[in-house]
Amino acid sequence: MTVRQFPTLKIHSPYQAARGGVGKSTLTANLAVALAAKGLRVGLLDADIYGPNIPGMLGLSGRPEIDEASGKIQPVAAHGLKAISMGLLLDPGTPVIWRGPMLAKMIHQFLFNVDWGQLDLLLLDLPPGTGDVQITLTQMAPLTGALIVTTPSAIALEDVRRGVEMFRQTEVPLIGLVENMSYFSCDKCGSAEAIFGEGGGETTARHLEIPYLGQVPLDPLIRLQADAGEPVVQAHPDAASGQALLRLAGDVGNYFQSA
Amino acid sequence: MTVRQFPTLKIHSPYQAARGGVGKSTLTANLAVALAAKGLRVGLLDADIYGPNIPGMLGLSGRPEIDEASGKIQPVAAHGLKAISMGLLLDPGTPVIWRGPMLAKMIHQFLFNVDWGQLDLLLLDLPPGTGDVQITLTQMAPLTGALIVTTPSAIALEDVRRGVEMFRQTEVPLIGLVENMSYFSCDKCGSAEAIFGEGGGETTARHLEIPYLGQVPLDPLIRLQADAGEPVVQAHPDAASGQALLRLAGDVGNYFQSA
Fold this sequence. Notes:
The structure is a homodimer. Helix content of chain A is 38%, strand content 16%.
């Protein structure tokens, strides 16, 4: 995640970056809802143009309206926040078969042609990789904080090192690293199983000299609630996973307040 | 996965496509090793330029050599196959901060400037999405079969529908859909837990009218062996996950023999 200051609007835009499938979008959706519940004015920009999952995870539907006078796109409001996503502009299942320059144009639209109004924080959900979307964002928007999400697997951590290095090269400050899918508690016997490995997140954070923001368990509730369109922090704030995500939202909130 | 015929070389190039984090690279590495063990001459092209995980999963190291006479890049040989990856050309942790046109150039190099020799099958490990790499490949190479990999989660299946539609639009035949991370068997009590949901892969395959190729369990052995650089089909062919992957390799092999 990253925070940025627009030249005129006062908008922070945190975003998350890592490899695919580590739960970036799920974490972003939960953080956005949790930060909005704290009273912050939160926007959520789904920058994953090819695989926009935010609408499903927040249960958003309907097409965003265009304001006739200003020509601006109206973000969709839900769960106390405003969101925009390629998924809201397309029929379900429609692929976006675009080369990079089109991606960059769409990101520009989402940043500057959406009627965000006054926001305290704009969260960006990034696609995997270090390509056109990332380059465009670092050039167009002074991002003020990236949150790195990973699983404990060594292969995932390879990609983390590359992501962190990209943010360093582009001078985006790092909020910290959170380890997702850290352990699974068996429904039957309660045994905690480290399916994707153990301790990799903390070791990597120390090695890369970025703050370690703890673990989020591999809890089927997180996935169930994402599939149902109501993030776990809202539906089950007392579950272990809900608690972990609320604690993370607290850390991210503090980062931006002290930044 | 997709098979293609080069104009002069007889190369089939299967590849996999889906969202990030569903285990595409792990499955591709296992399939490549299993198909090579059947006696096929297998090449593996890691087309994920931003997040090249194939070298780690196959334990590859060292830089590929360039043949002075022909100027061709020598692929790295291991586990009975030949492989090329951006990860072999860079120091670990170095990000590739490139826009789309550079990606397309690199894919072209990997296809046509690597000394693949005679191959029966070239497997392509694709990055997530429906962007530059996918467009470039469908334009440059007559791909002859795509294998769709997904988890059972509804959110992952959204991305599957988009991927399948892209392959249909670009006239790439679909080998079928395999559901990965289908269930986890608790180490302690043996209970099978459907962490990412149940039955979504089969339902989606039926709905999209593509062959359903079964399940691969969420087995920590798969991840451990990927982290260790020796795929599970080689290290533990008798494990439930090894068996599932070998069965999948059989299905994929049959597809190409009858194609």
